[in-house]
Amino acid sequence: AAADPPDEVVAMGVGYQGRERGWDIVLDGVPYRVVSDQNGVPRWGVQSTPEISTKAPTLAEEEYPWHSWHGGFGYARDWHSDTYHYADGIDCRWPRQMIMGPLVSSIATPNATTVVGFFEQSGTLYVLASQYCHKVNTANHTFVTLDGGDGSTGKDFTAGKACTAAANFDGSTLVGMGNSEGAWTFTGSTWTQTGTSPDPNEVIYAGYFATYWAEIAYVLARTFTSSSDPCVSWLSQGAAIEAAPSNWGTAYDIGEDGHAITGMTAFDRTLFIGKTDGLYYLDRTGRTPRVIPTVYASPNNGVNVLADSSGQVWCPTVEGYYRYDPNDGVITDCSPGRGLPNESSIYGRVTAHVQHKGWRYVAVYNGTTSYIMCGREREGDEGGIGPYIWHGALYSVTGQITCMHISGITSPPELWFGVGTSVYYFRLPSTGDNPLQDTAYRYRTTTGSLYLPATEWNVPGTRWQLTGLEIENEGLTTTTYVDLYAKIGQGAWQLVQRADVAGRATIQIPMAEDWRFNRIAFRLDVTNPDSIATPKIHAIVGKAARRVSVRDLISTTVYCSDRVNSRLGVSTQLTGLDQLDHLKVLQTAGRVTCSDWWTGRQRDLTVLVMPIQESLVIQKGDDAADLTAQVTMAVLAGSGNPTSEQPNITALYDIAVYDSDAYV
């Protein structure tokens, strides 16, 4: 007779036959107890489903066409026919096509100085970085020596004092330098400091400036941004910018003390002031109402507030990305992903933004990474959530994007942004707004990613199987090609096939049960691309994406509780929430092992776990909740499907993928 197993194995009931089981099932290594009904019978049912053969399956096969992704990002589990989960380095803004994101280049600031802003004067681009002002040669994208003998590393202001912002005025630029430092005026090649002996009640704090035409007599605002004295005042028209602070006009209190000014912009006859507690405005009546209140006061509220060409005011806050219409007073939350079941890494607050040809480019920062997204107004007949359709990310970078600027000095124009001690830039289309219309556009030359939502085809318990793809492309050759990789759930990348034929390249997907999935990732790696004439991958026509039938569906209900023990009194040492989270992970994982003892002996099955439904059983005081989870598992039978089971379906699935990871 075989020797008895160790006591801990007996207690767990895992891998032991012949004694009372300790646990009812073990899913991917985690044990669970099954709930019994009112008669004490365990809730365990098996429904047989015909295989794909001569029988008509209970879960019929279907094809699903997917033509485009111009409907926007953020749809993780449900979507309209033209939406996607998210992207990284992929541009999906136009119907029935997808292209690589822009080629982004960077240059480091001299002396590793931190970038805080941009300004242009006399056809030259300047970068504010820490206590320096650097001049950029936009022809070859390098930093150059400032005119006037200000040093090879740029104009050095007071050491230890950082620049805060800049604004153009009458052919000159005023640069703020923070508390007690006044400001510097730049005219041509000459720098002049103003407010060198400041009065605390009149000094130009922090230097947020804006042109303002409330009355002919006043054109430029200076700002008091201390929390004890949040004010703005004016410089009389025609007065010298370097005039002493006493020559400035009346100071207007902005909101309550205790909330500092964080940003400023102007349009027509109104000045808009961002503060830590929201957005205020000041017009020629002298009133200063708060038009966008924020519940949570933060030093990030109102930073980089901007008015666009139509007078709409865009105000980033930690609570949302707000648009204010001064004409009717309507406030709209235009935050990327707001209201969507967005489970991507692209989340957080907007830290910088610009507008170009009807598109808003914004930087979304999640605390680690910044993502450049692009959005447009949603048309009246377009489905989806929110007033704006957002796409992203065109580009991602580690760190916070602190400022963005569009320069028209170059042709085509360029979008510049600052991250840490470097500035980055990429070209914008000069012809129209679609890069494919502009031969001078530069495309990203590295791997990009596209993630598509998971789906069950509106039938719970149904997985997918993709039979093939046909890539419509320009420019692929035997030396410039793309490799298609894929992975199921959390598995490793697997090379599927190489496409090296211009025009239409056909790729076959393996027809094994290993490739039945709820979520799959695709990645296309470009080899030997050219930044000018990179291969362009247009809408891909797939041979089919079909629902697959399964042989058996097991339905059960399990406990998820801090107090659940084995039948022999041994704890899993997992909390109820840990047990529940494990089941949720398995919803999008690939095939896993389920061990059970319903046949009297241990049985190991290869299954796919379907979306679960959780229910609250009991909640007392501060104790952890006792939950149950209804679990459905599709049983797979073997490593592959017989050839006779494969359907004959062709050219039914449109999927525009370029150099991408695609979650389907």
Can you tell me about this structure?
The structure is a single chain. This protein has 664 residues and is mostly beta strands. 3% of the residues lie in helices and 40% in strands. The strands form 12 sheets. Strands 1, 2, 3, 43, 44, 45, 46 and 47 form an 8-stranded antiparallel sheet that branches. A hairpin with a 2-residue loop joins strand 21 and strand 22. The radius of gyration is 31 Å and the shape is globular. The two termini are 51 Å apart.
Brief sketch in words of this structure:
The protein has 664 residues and is mostly beta strands.
Tell me the number of helical segments per DSSP (H or I, 4 or more residues long). Answer: 2
Number of E-state strands: 48
For the largest beta-sheet, the strand count, sense and barrel status come to:
8 strands, antiparallel
The helix fraction, in percent, is: under 10%
How large is the radius of gyration?
Answer: 31 Å
Percent of residues in beta strands: 35-45%
Q: Mean of residue pLDDT?
A: 77
Q: Give the low-confidence spans.
A: 1-6, 8-19, 51-60, 198-203, 638-664
Distance between the termini: 51 Å
What overall geometry do the principal axes of the alpha carbons give? globular
Helix-strand makeup class: mainly beta
